[in-house]
Carcinoembryonic antigen-related cell adhesion molecule 8-like isoform X2 (Gymnodraco acuticeps), 375 residues
Amino acid sequence: MTSSRPLLVLLWFIHVTIPGLTEGAGVLPDGLNAAVGGKVMFTTTPTPGTTFQSVNWKFGAKDIFTWNVNNFPALGYEDRITFFLSTGSLELRNLALTDSGEYSVTIVPPGERPQPGNTRLDVYEPVSNVMVTSSSTELAEFSSVSLSCSSSGSSLSFLWLNSSSEVTGSDRVQITDGGSTLTIVNVTRYDQGPFRCRVSNPVSEGTSDPVTLTINFLEAQQLKMEPEVTGYLGEEVTLRYQFIPGPKDDIISQVQWKLKTPEGEEITIIVSRGESGVSVPETFLKGRVKIAEQSLIIEDVEMRDAGSYICSVTAFPSGAFEGTTKLVVKEGLGSEGLHILAKIITAGLFVLIVGTMLATTLFIIRKRYGPVPSD
């Protein structure tokens, strides 16, 4: 076993150093990409110093070119092939999609083993006519928009840009249809763009013209709400809420009032949805609450009605707004007590007036006739 090792080393040295004895699997690169109408060079890497007895090129199982002293291109390849005798390389021109596939070469040196090679060529239609269209370019804030990217070419990949930043998917941003459609829900003033679509394939790329969105938003919405309101037991109290729109008129789609309990829980007590009507959930306030525009009216006030009340208004195109007011409940006279108090005050005034008149009359009599004689 030991005596055979020098012989094996010698054979290995002869195999890797003498021209024509190397493996032929690396004669061609692993894979090539090219564009329709373009050209590709199949560059071979035979053993340095190799001379050729013959060279044969195939596309699949079909012979497309043979050199054996003279050039022999196959039918249909006469004007499309250039052969390089120094390396056995081949240039193929005027490429079509149908030229995609497996290519192989066999180089035969005189008196030596053939050196084969194979590779794959993929031909692509170049990217062109990249264009972005929008479902709308003038939008209200918090609405939605879809941008669609179209392009000529094959095996396309899509990338969306907002200014120079890549757009990625999120809760508000959806990228669908293989990346060619960008949908933004609840647009904000920061979604104006400009948006571009970059399309690429292995042989080319192209970018669309920019599309800029106009987002209409209001700058001067105002909410008027009293920070604290006092209500009296058994009486009616109004928690006033006024929404003042900005430069453009808003359409109020929903008004909702909630009560925040001392434990921090928010209880919905009434919701008004415009034409859909008013709904009042089951709470201890049901039957005693109603909405006038955005204000909340509570009838027959109870001590447990005290707390923080939250009003939420949803308007188009402005969006959602919220305000809070505190209701303080105090004991009062009630309606019957007020009537009694009014009667007492009225009677007191009557007695005061009559007494004043009598005193005035006695003063005049004494002044005119002197003191009244006593018995």
